[in-house]
TrEMBL record:
InterPro entries: DNA_brk_join_enz, Integrase-like_cat_sf, Integrase_catalytic, Tyrosine_recombinase_XerCD. PANTHER family: INTEGRASE_RECOMBINASE YOEC-RELATED, PHAGE INTEGRASE-RELATED. This is Tyrosine-type recombinase/integrase. Pfam families: Phage_integrase. The keyword Flavoprotein does not apply. SUPFAM superfamilies: DNA breaking-rejoining enzymes (SSF56349). Keywords: DNA recombination. The keyword Mitochondrion does not apply. Residues 3-181 form the Tyr recombinase domain. The lineage of its organism: Bacteria, Bacillati, Bacillota, Clostridia, Eubacteriales.
Length: 187
């Protein structure tokens, strides 16, 4: 895990994706990379696993959609429900771009994504952000939206312990700072 990589704020997430989609002077719009980063931020997968996705990997299972991946980094198998809105997002992207069911959704390299993201972040004045910041944003937002349930986030990210997950999303330093602030009792 890259300790220098920060989790995004929701504002940064939106601004990066919008800038990536629209482009700016000296940088063309790039919907492909923006879409890959949106999926990383909404599925919590590493970018290496996003780049291996094919439309046929998302399988209809009754009234829901399911995705089964073997994580490249850990070799762990992960099966989870893909929210309908995300499944439709992927399906629409594939239709717009003529991507067949068995083709890679994103036939690009991690390096290409990192390079484009670096250009956009330089333009926006953001430091310490990499593709992994999108996975960290996912983890942090899930944590906050689910009553600070670290065990839930640990399971979603398939971490070996809650302590690893706490370090990953930077909760421990945040909790220490809060505890110090809340303790101050001047007379």
């Amino acid at each position: 895990m890259n300790k220098k990589t920060k989790a995004l704020t929701t504002g940064q997430y939106k601004e990066i994706i919008q800038t990536m989609r629209e482009g700016f002077s000296g940088c063309r719009p790039n919907e492909r990379i923006a879409t890959a980063l949106v999926l990383e931020g909404n599925l919590g997968l590493r970018i290496s696993d996003i780049l291996k996705l094919r439309p046929c990997d998302i399988v209809r299972d009754g009234d829901r959609y399911r995705l089964e991946v073997t994580e490249q980094k850990t070799g762990k198998r992960r099966v989870f429900t893909v929210p309908l809105v995300i499944q439709q997002y992927i399906e629409n992207y594939c239709l717009r771009n003529g991507i067949g069911r068995d083709a890679l959704i994103f036939p690009i390299t991690e390096r290409a994504i990192q390079k484009q993201l670096h250009i956009v972040c330089d333009y926006l004045g953001y430091e310490g952000i990499s593709t992994h910041s999108f996975r960290k944003w996912y983890a942090t937002e899930i944590y906050k939206a689910n009553d600070y349930d670290i065990a839930l986030v640990q399971r979603l990210l398939q971490h070996s312990s809650a302590a690893v997950t706490q370090r990953y999303i930077g909760i421990e330093p945040q909790r220490i700072e809060t505890a110090i602030q809340n303790h101050a009792q001047l007379i």
